[in-house]
Amino acid sequence: MSLDQLYQQIILDHSKARHGSGLAGTAAPEGAHTGQSHQLNPVCGDEVTLRVAVEDGKVAQVSWDGAGCSISMASASVLSELAEGMTVAELHNAIDSFREVLRSRGKVSADPDLLGDAAAFEGVARYAARVKCAMISWVAAEDALNQAA
Amino acid sequence: MAVVSTPPTLERALPVMDDAEVLRIRNDFPVLNQLVNGQPLVYLDSGATSQNPLSVIEAEQEFYEQRNAAVHRGAHHLAVEATEVFEDARQTIADFIGADYAETIWTSNATEGLNLISYALSNAGLWAAQGRGDAGLKQLALNPGDEIVVTEMEHHANLIPWQELAFRTGATLRYIPIDDAGSLRMDLAGDIIGNRTRVLAFTHASNVLGTINPVAELVGLARKAGALVVLDACQSAPHLPLDVKGLDVDFAVFSGHKMLAPTGIGVLYGKQELLDILPPFLTGGSMITTVTMERAEYLPAPQRFEAGTQRISQAVALAAAANYLTETGLNRIHQWETGLGQRMVSGLESIPGIRVLGPSAGKERIGLAAFDVEGVHAHDVGQFLDSRGIAVRVGHHCAQPLHRRLGLTATTRASAYLYNTTHDVDQFLDAVAGVRAYFRA
């Protein structure tokens, strides 16, 4: 598998233009239920603090601060863009699906209808050492979502 | 089993190493002869773990094919043979580091060795408090007000055991800082190492910075203070001639897998007079004289610190590795790797956006270089190099406090060994030069 299949254009783009990045600069909508989660990968130092705001059963906003590799940062960006507007149940469903693809070692393909740009991370599943990089913000989102509910 | 060692005169007579010799050496390392991602493997991660020559692999295989038995027990032929090669291996390693036979303890790795020392020292306090063991234990015990000194460049293995020893005994942990060029602030060391210092633990050569520390000067300060000296020799024992008695350290540790041997075997050196009175760390079979229902008496070193069935085949393999290094010549290996290290650093320094940690080109360093690539995370750098068949280490290299001191969380490290050619280094430099463009940094 070539490097370009891992670092797809979408991933490189999102790693630069980070959607939802900047917790301090984005206040959660008034009246929304929020949850926040901090996740750390001690192996490489990737770190994400992610906040989910839920309003009327829908994800109103996903904001995050993070430091890490292009895969982890792009993944947080893609997640943030994808999640906004989803119902809580839809986001849980997307997280479950993303996890299944990433842990499949390449055996399960991503459903672009469900995962959108996040389907580009399918190739990461073949790089065992990078799965955690892609997962870190999704794990944070799941934890934050449970707190917000 | 004959102990093969090269007389110093013979080593001097050998010419300096060159790429042609390294290409011959590479034939002894089957794992190096493979393609990774369609490219010939360039293995530059020996600082993490080194590869095994055939003589080491065969030594372990021969042990299992011909001699496998438990050592130090049983009167049968295999048990006797196994004990002989196991103890011959100990003598080989003792000779390799300039120690005496009974001062050479087998461990699983350097980490275990450092934990062993730190637990033996806190056990010394427990024994002394109850009047058990040698009267000298009282001098070795740590108490509140005492200080343990380490440096800012330590690997977690030579840091956390001391944090925990401080926690158990109420002693205080202090640090010798580094300067921005990655050298110890020796101008401050004299004030930090003082009358309260009971233990000074430091690395011989930094696994991140490549710095070689001034052992003699540090030992001098420790002696003046009456402190024990613990040397982490993980990055020195495999790469340069090590003489623990010449250095006059009290303890030294290193791991076999960083010096051509398998994982699971390491060495602790300790001065005989200390090892003979220190309480054991692990207890159980093979290390006792008399056991009653209430208590036990312990053998002197080395058995005192080798509870349970030992890593016999790994010890035999480690001796084969030491012989391989001795036959090649540690001075020659050190010289060759120094050249590779300098080639790495001067090459990296000429690439825009690269910050090399530790001494700059032309300054003394071992054969490794850790660096930061502006705008690209180390994990991505490592992935990019892997796509070219180049194996490096990425992350904090088990030195988080050091990275924090340098304002970084993760770096990329290339580390060479006797089987790396100048071509390996050039391939690596060529790949690094392409990293920022690929990630649009």
UniProtKB/TrEMBL annotation, chain A:
CDD domains: IscU_like
Domain of life: Bacteria
Gene3D superfamilies registered for this protein in UniProt: 3.90.1010.10
Domain NIF system FeS cluster assembly NifU N-terminal: 7-133
Chain spans, region Disordered: 21-40
Annotated GO biological process: iron-sulfur cluster assembly
GO molecular function: iron ion binding; iron-sulfur cluster binding
NCBIfam families listed in its UniProt record: SUF_scaf_2
Name of the protein described by the UniProt record: Nitrogen fixation NifU-like protein
Species the sequence originates in: Pseudarthrobacter oxydans (Arthrobacter oxydans)
